[in-house]
């Protein structure tokens, strides 16, 4: 299913007058409007290949219908999202959920949809059919060298797939840890994991990065071997300058100050990438910005400030990705909402008056500092984001077009109502 450009233009035409009025209103207040629009146009968020179907919980999975049956169909779905919002120009693959059997063909198909390959994700948290050793008691941390070796070799295979596709990074998330006190020797688990990561690191091409993703808990509920940013940072430092920490917003203990973590990792040159989602309780993988939008804004505020301080390009300096799960919504609608939330928050962070904030901080003027941040956060920037989309050839209102064009109904007609996409 694809939506023709002329159709998009028709929808845009009918919404244009209303948009123009809103855009003129906000544009009048912003000095560097063209620079901000260009930054919004450049910013792209990768869509994970595993988020295109309805996820489940450990209790049930309610398939939504029309789910992609192959990697090709996943690429088509992301292509559709990108045609609508022009901000989803990359795909992130999880191996072995999405093996590119014919890499040249997959690469060409993605390019036809304007998509690049973002970070590759390895998987040593599940046992695959035919696999020699089980990961029940961990992978890279395992007490058995043969199991560690199997995990290392899998990661090296993932890098090889990525090279064929033109990806430039590997994200390693390990579920390794323990469920009960005494199960694990923490130091030995750390050393084994480090040694395994070093072997993977040695296989990285010169222009690649490795992202070490941390998570406080789940599926292990007593200890996790890459459990927080401190541990990830230790691994990244010990590995070398191609290794970075990856922050998944749902992987912290409650009330963690993620914006401060981000600021310090950036300062140390060790922030590599992001998995965006939102949560109320744990690793809920809910729609970005649906629960704690102010926290997301404060994170983006640190990202913009920290990247500018280092002269980093916002669009290319870090790996930006959504990591979400959809239990009750149409995944494609949810992803449109998530990307929109990211763009809105990024735009708000670009509006922060940095000189004034700096001055307020130097004067210990707490009230003014807070006012400056909240002024930006309370600005309705939706017309700015829509204008950036319009200029890139996307839809003024992606979700409305998706609904009017009955995309899900068409996908169900095309693919059937019982299809199940690979993923969690
Ligand atoms: C782990 C995680 C990690 C995985 C993905 C499926 O919770 O965030 O990034 O690769 O979920
Ligand atoms: Mn993640
Ligand atoms: Mn997660």
From TrEMBL:
Metal-binding listed as a keyword: yes
Keyword DNA repair in annotation: no
Entry-linked Gene3D superfamilies: Divalent-metal-dependent TIM barrel enzymes (3.20.20.150)
Keywords: Isomerase, Manganese, Metal-binding
A Gene Ontology molecular function term of the record: metal ion binding
InterPro entries to which the protein is assigned, alphabetical: L-rhamnose_isomerase, Xyl_isomerase-like_sf
PANTHER family: L-RHAMNOSE ISOMERASE (PTHR30268:SF0)
Protein name, per record: L-rhamnose isomerase / sugar isomerase
Organism lineage: Bacteria, Pseudomonadati, Bacteroidota, Chitinophagia, Chitinophagales
């Amino acid at each position: 299913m694809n939506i023709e450009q002329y159709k998009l233009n028709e929808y845009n035409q009918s919404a244009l007058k209303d948009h123009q009025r809103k855009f003129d209103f906000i544009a009048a207040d912003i000095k560097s409007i063209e620079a901000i629009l260009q930054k919004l146009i450049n910013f792209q968020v990768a869509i994970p290949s595993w988020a295109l179907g309805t996820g489940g919980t450990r209790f049930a999975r309610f398939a939504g219908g029309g789910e992609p049956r192959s990697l090709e169909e996943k690429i088509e779905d992301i292509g559709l999202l990108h045609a609508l919002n022009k901000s989803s120009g990359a795909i992130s693959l999880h191996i072995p959920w999405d093996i590119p059997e014919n890499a040249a063909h997959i690469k060409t198909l993605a390019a036809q949809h304007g998509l690049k390959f973002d970070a590759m994700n390895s998987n040593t948290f599940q046992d695959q059919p035919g696999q020699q050793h089980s990961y029940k008691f961990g992978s890279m941390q395992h007490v058995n060298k043969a199991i560690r070796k199997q995990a290392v070799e899998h990661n090296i295979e993932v890098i090889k797939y990525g090279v064929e596709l033109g990806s430039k990074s590997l994200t390693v998330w390990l579920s390794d840890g323990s469920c009960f006190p005494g199960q694990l020797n923490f130091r030995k688990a750390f050393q084994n994991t480090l040694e395994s990561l070093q072997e993977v690191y040695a296989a990285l091409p010169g222009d690649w990065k490795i992202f070490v993703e941390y998570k406080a808990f789940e599926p292990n509920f007593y200890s996790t071997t890459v459990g927080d940013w401190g541990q990830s940072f230790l691994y990244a430092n010990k590995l070398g300058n191609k290794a970075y920490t990856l922050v998944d917003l749902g992987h912290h203990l409650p009330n963690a100050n993620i914006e401060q973590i981000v600021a310090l990792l950036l300062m140390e040159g060790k922030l590599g990438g992001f998995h965006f989602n939102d949560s109320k309780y744990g690793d809920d993988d809910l729609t970005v910005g649906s629960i704690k939008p102010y926290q997301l804004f404060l994170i983006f505020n640190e990202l913009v400030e920290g990247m500018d301080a280092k002269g980093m390009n916002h669009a290319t300096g870090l790996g930006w990705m959504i990591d979400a799960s959809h239990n009750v919504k149409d995944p494609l609608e949810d992803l449109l909402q998530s990307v929109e939330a990211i763009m809105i928050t990024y735009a708000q962070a670009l509006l922060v008056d940095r000189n004034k904030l700096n001055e307020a901080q130097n004067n210990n003027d707490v009230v003014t500092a807070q006012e400056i941040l909240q002024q930006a956060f309370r600005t309705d920037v939706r017309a700015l984001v829509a204008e950036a989309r319009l200029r890139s050839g996307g839809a003024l209102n992606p979700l409305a077009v998706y609904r009017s064009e009955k995309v899900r109904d068409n996908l169900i007609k095309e693919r059937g109502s019982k299809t199940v996409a690979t993923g969690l």
